[in-house]
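Researcher: Structure prediction, please.
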Amino acid sequence: MNFAQQHLTSLLRRMSLDAILFWSLENIRYLCGFSGSDGALIYAGEERIFLSDSRYEEQARAEVRGAVFRKYIKKIEGIVHGLRSLGVKRLGFEASALSWESYQKLRERLPRVSLVPLAAQIALLRARKEPEEVEKIRRAIAIAAESFRDTLPRLKPGVREKTVGDFWEIRMKHRGGESSSFPIIVASGARAALPHGKPSAKAIEKKEMVVIDFGARHEGYHSDETKTLVLGKPDHRQRKIYDLVRKAQEKAIRAVRPGESVRRIDSAAREVITRAGYGNFFGHGTGHGIGLAVHEAPTISPRGAGVVKEGMVFSIEPGIYLPGWGGVRLEDLVLVTGRGCEVLTYLSKELKDNII
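Model: Predicted structure follows.
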């Protein structure tokens, strides 16, 4: 029994649930293997029913494991029939995935069934990765990293940000990626102060800093990494900000160990930046989990909850963003191990290796 099965078995018992209805595609894929774009999963301990329509019948029969497949014409009606066949009286459901409209339809058709919203109770369902999941993330990392190396010769003065981003997307698919994890971020000069700056028609200029945030998807699993490059010899301020962010990242990585609070890991990075006087320019969390979704549990931030556990994979990505000047963000993915963590991403974040 893996981490998720143990968690769900305990949850069903603890909350006196007969079953849980899974609606999100990431959790459905995680629990039964289906990779299509529509369906539902009824998880009732040893009894599990995956439901979808005729478009996915052959795909479901080929992919789905540990669950029987049932075809529906109308989704809600199919789910209702499946729940009745199992005699479900108390049903948990994904509060963040089920729409209000679908919830109301279930209530109308199942007046004697108690519908129990689940949020925090299942937020960590996919957080601890099995070894085979880690290997898929490693492969996604390699696809993205080698595609970066393919793209690096094109990162030079006069080239437009969007040209770099488009070429990069092509290289990741060429190297076997299903897609990029998200639209690649290429933000140069003053635009590097935009944490999610989409590639624009702006030409990259000499002596500018360029923040690039990229990732690939492999067999459903994502990577995520950020480098900041300098086109030419960095000036004093560029070097100062870069070194500060690097120190913050290194301190946070050293803080990662089983049982450590997510807030403490965040504060390890945040304290470095705040003490240097730049706390107001680091507005996002230090990290996020990654797997079948680009952003998933755990959340490494001042508002995060809980502790990290062995098998979790998440980012460490502090940044400083100065309006009108630019910014620096450095991001690596770490795997929590028995005594600390392993940095999975392998492209160097040392300044000397990021001057081009």
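Model: Residues 131-151 form the longest helix (21 residues).
Researcher: Thanks, that helps.
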